[in-house]
Amino acid sequence: MQTIGERLEDARKKKGISIREAAESTKIRGDYLQKFESNHFDIGLTEIYTRGFLRSYANFLKLPADRILADFAALGHGEVRPRQPSREIYGRMDISVATAGEASDRAAPPEDTLAETAPSRAQPRYPRSGNPNLPTGPDPAIIFKYAKWGGGIVLLIVAVLVVRSLFNGGGSATPAPAPSRSTPASSQAAAPAPVPTERIITLVALDVVRVNVKQKISDDAEGEDIFLGTLARGQRQTVPWTGPIFIHASAGQNLEIEFQGRRYPTQFTGAGRCAMN
Less crowded by CB within 10 Å, the N or C end of the chain? Predict the structure, then answer.
């Protein structure tokens, strides 16, 4: 009686395709397929993914997938469970575009909170001959806080000046009239910053997951594929986000979406999709 690997290898050779062609068609790594054909099923993934890859490969080779999985379970890899109909869980995720200042304030906790949660350090002891009422100097935490605020104000002023110079350089050669001395400088409105026309999101795989990103035409209609593939654990994939999209995932708990340095969960488990507008 042929083993699982021998049946897979014979079926592939009868179809006249190579391991590389089979990997491209099934979206399964070639080294996994070679191990399956060599009867090595320990590929470093959980059993549910191993069973899923075996089923996909058997269906691709026109072999009875249920019998392949039954033989796989007979080797001591778990019981054969009836396949339940897939159910998609729909979710909606809204991502608000935050400024760089807000992102930094959210990422770093306030200095006062750090000072309260940090363990208190032993205060230096004064010599018996000295005066304990002598000042010890300003608190370094307060100095750092004001220095950070001052640096942020300076960067904001520089950004406003750069934007003004860009807009003034693209106009006519006639210099703009100087503001009146009686008009305070704060009353002059700064030119708005240019709005980016294209955004980028990054798909971050916490474990093996198959992802399909499609254009969103309406709440129920989908357009062309933007990305389709299987991401390994730790792999990152950038995707352009120029309009509403749907993100399908075979296992929502294994996928996170990164935007402007922050990560967002897909808010569903198992096979499902989420929308980004």
Answer: N
What pairing do the DSSP bridges indicate for beta strands 255-259 and 199-205? antiparallel
pLDDT in tens, 221-242: 888 999 999 999 999 999 998 8
Q: How far is CA 266 from CA 24, 41, 107, 226, 235, in A?
A: 27, 30, 20, 18, 16
Residue 121: how many other CB atoms lie within 10 Å: 6
Instruction: Give this prediction's pTM.
Output: 0.31
| Average per-residue pLDDT for the chain | 76
* pLDDT at 174 > cutoff 60: no
How many Å apart are CA 70 and CA 225, to the nearest integer?
35
pLDDT given for residue 199 in this prediction: 85
Structure tokens belonging to residue 246: 């749907």
Tell me the three state secondary structure of residue 264. Answer: strand
Collect all residues with Cβ–Cβ distance below 8 Å to 141 and sequence separation of at least 6: 111, 114, 115
How far apart (Å, rounded) are the C-alpha atoms in residues 187 and 25? Answer: 63
Domains of the chain from N-terminus onward: 4-74 (1.10.260.40), 89-97+196-276 (no CATH)
